[in-house]
Amino acid sequence: MAVMQQIQAEVDRYPLVLFMKGTPQYPTCGYSSRAVQALMAAGAVSLRTINVLEEPEIRANLPRFSNLPTFPQLFMHGELIGGCDIVMELFEAGELKRIVEEASAA
């Protein structure tokens, strides 16, 4: 399966997908760590995470797929929400909790 199809399959299959550096338990960059902490604080229990450091093909091609050059990247129902800055803005505005609840209800 081509890597673009693999990425599409992941974001289609799971309501919330976070492409990050490291894992939720062991994030390897501050931005991924902050995004995971915000998502967990917002109640994300069924969050699908993909460690782009273990998936070099995804790491190389995700920026082309999403038109966003940085990591982490959060997708909800196949749509790009954004990176760490957007996740933090949504969290601080109280919107991330609604997004997480909406994704969980699907």
Automatic annotation (TrEMBL):
InterPro entries, per database record: Glutaredoxin, GRX_PICOT-like, Monothiol_GRX, Monothiol_GRX-rel, Thioredoxin-like_sf
Similarity comment: Belongs to the glutaredoxin family. Monothiol subfamily.
Taxonomic path: Bacteria, Pseudomonadati, Pseudomonadota, Gammaproteobacteria, Lysobacterales
Binding-site list for [2Fe-2S] cluster: C29
Domain Glutaredoxin: 17-81
Source organism of the structure: Stenotrophomonas tumulicola
Entry keyword Chloroplast: no
Binding site for glutathione: K21, R59, F71, C84, D85
Spans through the membrane: none
Keyword Oxidoreductase attributed: no
Pfam families in alphabetical order: Glutaredoxin (PF00462)
Gene Ontology molecular function, alphabetical: 2 iron, 2 sulfur cluster binding; disulfide oxidoreductase activity; metal ion binding
Keyword terms, alphabetized: 2Fe-2S, Iron, Iron-sulfur, Metal-binding, Redox-active center
Protein name: Glutaredoxin
